[in-house]
């Protein structure tokens, strides 16, 4: 995700308390209700006096976000591409392991300096590990040895499956001596969590 904030949401006649999550292509609310607002369904977005006002065909949502309101409005109007949010930069060494997304792989090949597919290249700036089960997370300790000390491992997994959740990924990361620093909506069907080596061990 890019950002999270505790807030209140005025939706219809109700005022709800909870947490707003600004994702790559949608704004989610979790609390007194669970609501999702895709960017593609927003007819207008405006920020005024600390409130983010979003108009959709289903109604108007007003998020009380304080100083974050104009920043989030700008991010919704001008969303970063997924590859930008994932931090893939020109000159990077990137390894792709088990990530079944041809379009993403093509974008990485176009931008990165070197790309290894199917195995982790020593000194990788970023490793993308596609995980379909908890067992796939057992590779994290070995992958930690392949990344640059200030590099990262993105674990990509399917959304909405109880047998593999963000908590499973975080737990496996801790077991491998890694810490999570960022979560991103990788695609409509997958999430991605970035893991790095703690500063004290670099």
| Computed structural class | alpha+beta
Question: Strand arrangement, largest sheet?
Answer: 4-3-2-1-7-6-5
The figure for the number of domains is 2
What is the helical fraction, as a range of percent? Answer: 10-25%
Structural description of this entry:
This protein is an alpha+beta fold. Helices cover 19% and strands 45% of the residues. Helix 3 links the parallel strand 8 and strand 9. The mean pLDDT is 94.
Give me some keywords for this one.
2 domains, alpha+beta, Rossmann fold, seven-stranded antiparallel beta sheet, single chain, 13 strands, six-stranded mixed beta sheet, PH-domain like, 5 helices, 202 residues
Map the helices and strands.
Elements: E1 3-11, E2 14-22, E3 26-31, E4 34-38, E5 42-48, E6 51-56, E7 59-64, H1 68-77, H2 82-85, E8 93-97, H3 102-111, E9 114-117, E10 124-130, H4 140-144, E11 147-158, H5 166-175, E12 179-185, E13 190-196
Parallel strand pairs: 8-9, 8-10, 10-11
Antiparallel strand pairs: 1-2, 1-7, 2-3, 3-4, 5-6, 6-7, 11-13, 12-13
